[in-house]
């Protein structure tokens, strides 16, 4: 790309503009010249490679500089640049992320100038009405950019799997998208077949050109392989998300579940179905419907299919295809996903697995993974001619939420203390956790009951309760096991389920957890928050409080992985615990002196007036050790674009009372105040 500015315009200042920073972070900056006709700057992947000057301007006169040879070299380097052939998923994901950023930028800019009757805005409003009520312009641009990128990616995969069809080009790309993903196919055709595409033609053409050169056969070979802890499809997605927008991963609480954790949970559920419910085929049994409400890239459903395959080996491996149809396996597997990229990858990944195992999809047969927010109420939508595939997707997801009985709910729901899911439906369900022994909690700060993982547990509990029996199995934040704020939640779970197994994986660096022997204790995820596996079993017609079993797993990450692979639910050393009022703790405790302790006065009786004390926020930006550091950080903060400031200082989503753009503007307008503030600090 050649970016032309006015003669003599200051390129240093242009470099710092939000537009140029966006270019440098996307595929536009892959090979770019910035020039004011006198000075030329050449960038590769957003980094300056060469800078030359042809002339200078003084008193309105242009004076040549003897630098023509260097400028010629710069221009030839720009023209002769060749993209390397991509043959691994890491490079593919990184390059796709850059291209998707460019498309997103184009959509965002187009939306600024459209009215409600133009194509992009009409489509956004349709999505808002039928599928994702909280969708704003930025999230729509993000989702749509990912749709285009992964639609083209999926089309390129289909093209590679059916050789002999000529070059991969945009005009025929949609015919290569599998009808196993009808929503993606429909949305992608909307992009190709309407005027919407004209606004972002340049970015799409660049991505098509790039994908056409990718060695997709080599990449697909890796997609079919896996080792003990690595799933190339998932790492492809994680690499993409990290390069595309790392803050999106944090805001949505998106973290890849390690394979040993997944396999332990799936194996445990399978064994319980056999042992507790007399279902010989476990997860493969015809009456067992399975839902992963935050399916991501399909890791849990992937393992479920493999487990069912193992269960069916007793019938003979050659009958796999027949058994899948006879026992209606694919009809009983459901997944919900909110983000377009993992939604697409989950379809691709599971389809590849099934095909590698010998399954042959019939025409129009699809996987039951739906683009929806599990925590939104399931309401069927009226069909519309434009975007019919959107209402169909919404209605099928709504049916799973409200009509189809679910026997097993499992997965790794997102953890996000600042929940983005605040609709009335899920809020009303979670209100059941705000009571203890029939009385309101009377907590000053119930924020942590609003964490997304709590809402997903409540959703799963609700689905199993509606079925009157079944299993809920999640790996989640372990805060709910003993935090006093969660005591109502614990009692509610005890009242719903028959048996509860808690395997606390610890690894909480926030609490500085160490193993009982004093050695380091590490997390199974790349996060600071400790986690646990919770398996909740509900039998029909049970009215007693649940029996609770607890066990701890301490040590290094590697040792935890090894133990999870070796252990089964039967071989874990469980300790039976008896949660009791008022806290109903899901951890063991020494109760020998509890009766004597309870005879003392409660602190809340002694000091009835209290507050939460000091509560900080946005600590990376707002808290430093010295006045000089405060001034340095704030000066840097006001020099950044809103997007870069948000990501660099981990500021998260805007709130009603605090917005990044307002903070930047305020500080830019009040530099004197900044100096005064730092003087007061010192």
From TrEMBL:
GO annotation, biological process: methylation
Coiled-coil regions listed in the entry: none
Entry annotated with the keyword Methyltransferase: yes
Boundaries of every Type ISP restriction-modification enzyme LLaBIII C-terminal specificity domain copy: 605-681
Domain DNA methylase adenine-specific: 229-450
Lineage of origin: Bacteria, Bacillati, Cyanobacteriota, Cyanophyceae, Oscillatoriophycideae
UniProt keyword annotation of Transferase present: yes
E.C. numbers: 2.1.1.72
GO molecular function: DNA binding; N-methyltransferase activity; site-specific DNA-methyltransferase (adenine-specific) activity
InterPro entries listed in its UniProt record: DNA_methylase_A-5, N4_N6_ade-DNA_methylase, SAM-dependent_MTases_sf, Type_ISP_LLaBIII_C
Superkingdom as given in the UniProt entry: Bacteria
Record keywords, A-Z: Methyltransferase, Transferase
Name of protein: site-specific DNA-methyltransferase (adenine-specific)
Catalytically driven reaction(s): a 2'-deoxyadenosine in DNA + S-adenosyl-L-methionine = an N(6)-methyl-2'-deoxyadenosine in DNA + S-adenosyl-L-homocysteine + H(+)
């Amino acid at each position: 790309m050649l970016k032309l500015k006015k003669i003599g315009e200051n390129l240093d200042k242009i470099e710092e503009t939000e537009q140029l920073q966006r270019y440098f972070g996307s595929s536009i900056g892959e090979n770019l010249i910035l020039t004011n006709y006198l000075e030329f700057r050449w960038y590769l992947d957003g980094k300056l490679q060469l800078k030359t000057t042809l002339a200078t301007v003084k008193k309105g006169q242009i004076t040549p500089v003897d630098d023509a040879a260097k400028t010629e070299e710069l221009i030839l380097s720009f023209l002769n640049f060749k993209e390397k052939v991509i043959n691994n998923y890491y490079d593919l994901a990184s390059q796709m992320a850059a291209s998707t950023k460019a498309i997103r930028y184009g959509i965002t800019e187009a939306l600024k100038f459209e009215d409600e009757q133009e194509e992009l805005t009409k489509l956004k409003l349709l999505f808002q009405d039928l599928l994702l009520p909280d969708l704003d312009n930025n999230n729509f641009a993000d989702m749509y950019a990912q749709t285009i990128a992964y639609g083209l990616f999926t089309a390129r995969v289909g093209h590679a799997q059916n050789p002999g069809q000529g070059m991969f080009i945009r005009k025929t790309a949609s015919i290569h998208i599998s009808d196993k993903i009808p929503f993606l196919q429909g949305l992608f055709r909307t992009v190709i077949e309407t005027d919407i595409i004209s606004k972002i033609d340049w970015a799409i053409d660049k991505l098509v050109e790039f994908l056409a050169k990718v060695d997709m056969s080599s990449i697909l070979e890796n997609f079919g392989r896996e080792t003990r802890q690595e799933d190339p499809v998932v790492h492809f997605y994680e690499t993409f998300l990290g390069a595309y927008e790392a803050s999106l991963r944090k805001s949505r609480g998106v973290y890849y579940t390690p394979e040993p954790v997944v396999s332990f949970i799936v194996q445990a559920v399978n064994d319980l179905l056999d042992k507790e419910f007399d279902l010989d085929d476990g997860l493969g049994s015809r009456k067992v419907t399975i839902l992963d409400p935050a399916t991501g890239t399909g890791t849990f459903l992937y393992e479920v299919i493999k487990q069912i395959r193992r269960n069916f080996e007793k019938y003979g491996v050659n009958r796999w295809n027949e058994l899948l149809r006879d026992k209606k396996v694919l009809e009983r597997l459901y997944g919900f996903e909110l983000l377009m990229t993992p939604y697409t990858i989950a379809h691709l990944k599971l389809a590849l697995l099934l095909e590698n195992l010998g399954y042959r999809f019939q025409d129009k047969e699809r996987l039951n993974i739906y683009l929806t927010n599990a925590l939104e109420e399931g309401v069927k939508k009226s069909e519309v001619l434009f975007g019919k595939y959107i209402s169909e997707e919404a209605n099928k997801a709504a049916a799973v939420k409200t009509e189809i009985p679910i026997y097993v709910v499992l997965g790794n729901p997102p953890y996000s203390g600042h929940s983005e899911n605040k609709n009335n439906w899920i809020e009303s369900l979670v209100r059941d956790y705000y009571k203890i022994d029939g009385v309101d909690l009377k907590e000053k700060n119930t924020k942590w009951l609003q964490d997304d993982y709590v809402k997903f547990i409540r959703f799963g509990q609700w689905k199993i309760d509606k079925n009157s029996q079944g299993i809920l199995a999640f790996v989640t934040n372990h805060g709910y096991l003993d935090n006093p704020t969660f005591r109502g939640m614990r009692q509610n779970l005890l009242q719903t389920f028959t048996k509860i197994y808690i395997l606390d994986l610890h690894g909480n660096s926030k609490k500085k957890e160490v193993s009982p022997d004093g050695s380091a204790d590490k997390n199974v995820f790349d996060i600071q928050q400790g986690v646990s596996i919770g398996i909740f079993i509900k039998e029909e017609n049970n009215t007693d409080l649940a029996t609770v079993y607890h066990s701890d797993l301490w040590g290094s990450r590697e040792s935890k992985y090894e133990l999870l692979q070796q252990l089964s639910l039967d071989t874990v050393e469980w300790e039976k615990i008896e949660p009791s009022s008022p806290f109903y703790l899901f951890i063991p405790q020494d109760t020998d002196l509890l009766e004597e302790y309870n005879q003392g006065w409660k602190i809340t009786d002694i000091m009835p007036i209290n507050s939460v004390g000091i509560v900080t926020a946005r600590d990376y930006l707002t808290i430093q050790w010295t006045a000089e550091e405060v001034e340095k950080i704030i000066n840097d903060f006001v020099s950044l674009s809103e997007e870069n400031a948000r990501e660099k200082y981990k500021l998260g989503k805007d709130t009603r009372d605090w917005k990044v753009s307002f903070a930047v503007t305020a500080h830019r307008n009040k530099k004197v105040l900044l100096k005064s503030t730092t003087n007061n600090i010192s």
